[in-house]
Amino acid sequence: MTGPDDLRLDTLEPEDLDGHTIDELADYLDAGMQPADPSIDDSAACQNALAALVRLRQSSMGSLDAAAEHEEPAEESWIGGVLANISLEARAGRDVPLRPVAPTERPVMTEGAIRSMVRTAGDVVPGVVIARCSLEGDVTELDAPVRVLVELAVRSGVPIHPVAEQVRAAVAAVLAEQTDLVLAAVDVRVRDLLPPQPGSVDPHDDEEDRA
């Protein structure tokens, strides 16, 4: 799933998440976020990562264990790649300008917040897990054209072209509503195929049975 420019979990630094690691955040989530940890609760990067972890677990529920049984060790698997990308994407990154209402204003939104917005929009499409998202172009310049790249894992049996188009439309709509980015394109790539939801019927199995 991850390309040569992607970082693996073992190369991530705690600075990516205000001193925390993705494993610590996963443990915090498992503990019901109790006792409260202000260093996590007050960190925008940690909150973005926690929200992405929740969506990952909800959208891939039942697939993680099945995938782990057939994949290489975790740090090499698609699961490790998604977690690494969540950690990296949650960083604040560059300041992205918004269109000011008054001449004295200089409103901005962080790149991390926008990546989280993209991931949220894509993850609500059924049968899809967002593997990676990135903004390509000079996002620090108002009105500069920007390309958004979204890489997906799609559950087996889910029609790929329709869900990819749903993700593209959802991402374009939320960015148009919440930011002032000038979108040159929203590129959606399907990089992985997830096992079917446990208990669901894979249409390919039906075809084999009829044969």
Structure description:
It comes from Curtobacterium citri. This is Asp23/Gls24 family envelope stress response protein. The chain has 211 residues and is α+β, with helices and mostly antiparallel strands. It has a single domain, classed as Cation efflux protein, cytoplasmic domain (Alpha-Beta Plaits, 2-Layer Sandwich), CATH 3.30.70. The chain contains eight helices and five strands; from the N terminus they run αααααββαββαβα. The protein has helices at residues 22-30, 38-41, 44-59, 64-70, 78-89, 111-123, 160-178, 203-210; strands at residues 95-97, 108-110, 128-136, 145-155, 182-194. Strands 3-4-5 form a three-stranded mixed beta sheet. A two-stranded antiparallel sheet has the order 1-2. Strand 4 (145-155), helix 7 (160-178) and strand 5 (182-194) form a beta-alpha-beta unit. Helix 3 (44-59) runs antiparallel to helix 5 (78-89). The longest helix has 19 residues, at 160-178. The chain starts with 21 loop residues before the first helix and ends with a helix. Residues 1-14, 61-68, 71-76 and 203-211 have low confidence and may be disordered.
Summarize this structure as a short list of keywords or feature phrases:
single chain; 211 residues; Alpha-Beta Plaits; three-stranded mixed sheet; 8 helices; disordered N terminus; Asp23/Gls24 family envelope stress response protein
